[in-house]
Amino acid sequence: MSEFDEKTRVTQVVQKPAGEEGGGNDCLVVIYAPEPGLLGKRFVLDRAVLRVGRGADNTVVLDGDSVSRRHARFEKRGNRWYVVDLNSTNGTYLNEQLVIGEQVLNNGDRVKVGPAILKFLSGADAEAKYHEEIYRMTIVDGLTQIHNKRYLFEVLERECVRARRHERALSVIMFDIDHFKRINDKFGHLAGDHALRELARICQERIRRDETFARYGGEEFTVVLPETALDGALSLAEDLRTRAETNEFVFQSESIPLTISLGCAQLETSDKNALDLIQRADDKLYEAKHGGRNRVCA
Fold first, then answer.
1. What is the pTM of this model?
2. Chain centroid offset of residue 257 CA
3. Which residues are catalytic?
4. How many Å apart are CA 123 and CA 129, to the nearest integer?
5. Is the dihedral of CA 198, 202, 208, 213 positive or negative?
6. Radius of gyration of the chain (CA)
7. Helices 149-165 and 274-290, packing angle to 10 deg
8. H/E stretch holding 76
9. CB 40: neighbour CB atoms within 10 A?
10. What are the pLDDT digits (tens) for 44-69?
């Protein structure tokens, strides 16, 4: 493995309990959670009601200050499943929308309880969908639904080789949210999660198909720009900066002021590998933050 590869995560595949033939195809998969042991875990919906919360008496036990003791439940009525909020303090979210009372679930829906996100998989092929979801988790960030760091480096390493072989330009943009800790401290971590998702969404709208947009980690993001020189990277970076500054980030009726700082770098002959290119872009990001934030440096 190269020096920038992430550690391999081994996910245990949860087998169906004995005697479940003929039913129990529907399930919930944890696609995002602070606790590594929960990520990828499957909860088969083999009973009429499944409860989620901080208390030990729940079927799905989640830690975190934003999780109520009895937060929500999944309830089957006829052939449909519903998510029901149990008057939780911080609310239950279905596909980023606050659940008012209860909401019917459709295949592929994402339910957020505190910091965790569970994906609902339904139908006769739910088993196959589960394994597809486990693979997807290796390349996609569960919170923002964009690519993750592991996928980013796979692409960047390949693009570096291609750029050198064909003598074409290759640039990278690194950016992160200014004073992100202040957002979490003032508005709460759920608001911080919302800001990350919303920022990823508005930036993704500007990214072209041949470009790669990924969450590098925490509040930091990366864009890989094949066949793009530094001036092109600077232009895109300024566009992303403006989009973030002018977008209205609102969570639970509270407006969250948000700006980003960005650093750009172009592949040079002195770069030994993809990590060198990333590091130079990150150095420029550091320069932008120390130069006053909400700016682009190259």
1. 0.85
2. 21
3. 219
4. 9
5. negative
6. 21
7. 110
8. strand 72-77
9. 22
10. 999 999 999 999 999 999 998 899 99
